[in-house]
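Changelog-linked ticket: NDP example.
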Amino acid sequence: MRQHRLVLFVACVAMGIVFGSWFFTKNYIQHYGMPYRLKYDMALKNITAQDRIVPLAIIGSGCAGLAAAVYGARLHIPTVVFEGKKPGGQLTTTTWVENWPAFEKILGTDIILRLKHQALSFGARMVPDTIIAIDTKTWPFVLTMDDGSQLYALSMIIATGANPRKLEVPGEDTLWGKGVTTCAICDAPFYKDGTVVVVGGGDSAIEEALQLAPYAKHIIILVRGQSMRASAAMQDHLSEYAHIEVWFNTRIKEIKGKDHVSSIIIEKNNHEEELEINAVFLAIGHVPNTQLIKDQLTCDSNGYIILDQHTQETSRQGIFAAGDVADHRYRQAGVAAGDGIKAALDAAQFLREHGFNEDVVGKLKSQLYDPATLALKVPLQKIGSVEDFESLVKNNAEKIVVLDFYTDYCPSCLQMMPVVEAAAAGLLDKAVFAKVNALEAVDLTKKYAVPTVPMLLVFKDGALVGRNKDTLTRAQLQAFIHEFIG
Ligand code: NDP
C-alpha cells in the first residue's frame, strides 16, 4: 500500500514538472520571444550548384511586404515579392486613410500603388503568383509556387497579413457572394434603396456603413456587446446619417435566402426575431494568414507568428515576419509598413553575417530566379451590352469566352484584373477574355444575375457553363478555365 502511494506521489510530481515546464516555456516564448534559434548549415558554398535562387523572398504585397521590398531592393539585395491572391492586401479594401504619416488624407489604394512603384524603381521584382508551400527544414528555404515550380530563398519575409473573420452561422457559406460579403466598397451599389446590416463594432464596421450610406435606404449596425470598440472619431461620423442605426446586444443566429439573402434570424437582448434584409456586410475582424508556416514557426494560440524581442525575426533563423500576420495588438497600416522596414533590415543583416554581398550577387547572377516571363499580360477588351457579348461569342466560335465583371470602385476587382490578364496571356489560343463594368452593362449584369463583383462567368458555345466569385491565382484561374476547355 505504502509502495503504491509512493509510486502515485512520484508520478504526480513528474507530471507536475512536465506540465510546469511546458506551461513556463509556452508563456516565456509568448512574452519574451524565442530563447534560441534553430540553425542550419548556411555556408554560401553549399549553393554553387543551385539555380532559381531568391536572395530575399517576400511573401505578400500589402504595405508590410511592399515597404520591406523598398528597403531590400534599395540595399541592392535581389528582392522578389510574391503578390498572392489579393495583391495590395487590406489597404486596397479601404477608402480614405487619415492617419498615414505625412498625409492628412490618402486613399488606401494610392498608398499601395506608390509603395509598389517605389519598390519597382529600386529594382524589386513583383510576381503575380502565390506560394503554396514553404519548407524551412533546409537552407536555402524551398518555396513552391502554385504552378508547382520551386524556388530557393536565402532569406524570407512573411507578410501574408490577415483574412476577414467569418461568423460561422448557418447560411453564411451558401449565401457567400449572394448577399453575404465583407466589401461594402465593392457591393454597396447593388443594394440601392435596400435594407442591409453591418456586423461588428470596430472602425471597419463604421467604415462599411459609411460606404453603404449613399446607396442603402436603411443600414443597421449589429454590435454583439453593449458598446462599440470603434474610435470616438469614427463613431462621431455616424450622427451625420439618420438612416444608420446601431443595435447593441444583437447577434446573427442564421442567414436565410434561396438564391440571395432575404432575411436573418437575430438574437436581440435574449429575444429571437426574423428581420427581412437584402445583404449582410461582415466587419468582425481578421484572422492571421499563417496556414503556410504555422507548423514550422512558433505561433501564439491565436495563430500569430511570435517574434524575437525587438526584431522581426521568427523562431527560424533567416525568416522574418511583418505586419498583421505577427501583430495582434496594433494592426495599423503605418505599423505594418514599419515592421516591413525592420524585417528588411534584419534580413539584410542576416545575409551579411552569412557572407552575402555584391560580389556574391555577381557570382550568382546566372543562378538567380528571373520572373520576367510571368509578367506577360493581355489587356482585356471591354464590352458593354448583350449585343457586344453576342458578337464576341460569334467571332470566337472555337474558343471559351470569359467575362470579368467589375466596377471602378471595387478594390478586389482591381486586384483581380492583373491576375485575369496574366491568365489570359497563357490561354490565348483557347479562350477569349473580356471585362464588363457591372454598373454600365446593366442588361448583361441582369441577364446573368451577377450579385457581386468581381465575378467571372465562363461561356462555351454561348451557354453559361461556369461562375467564380473567389479570388484566384493565375495558375488556379487557368486550371479553372481548363476544366471547360476539356
Ligand atoms: P476590430 O478587431 O477592431 O473589431 C472587430 C469587431 O467585431 C468588434 O466589435 C468585435 O466585437 C466584433 N466581432 C468579432 N467577432 C464577432 C462575432 N463572431 N460576431 C459579432 N461581432 C464580432 O476589427 P476592425 O477590422 O474593425 O479593425 C482592425 C484595426 O484596423 C483596428 O485597429 C482599427 O482601428 C483599424 N481600422 C482603422 C480604420 C481607420 O482608421 N479608418 C478603418 C478600419 C480599421 P467585440 O468588441 O465584442 O469583441
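Closing comment: Example verified and attached. DSSP finds twelve helices and 24 strands in the chain. The CA atoms of residues 408 and 444 lie 17 Å apart.
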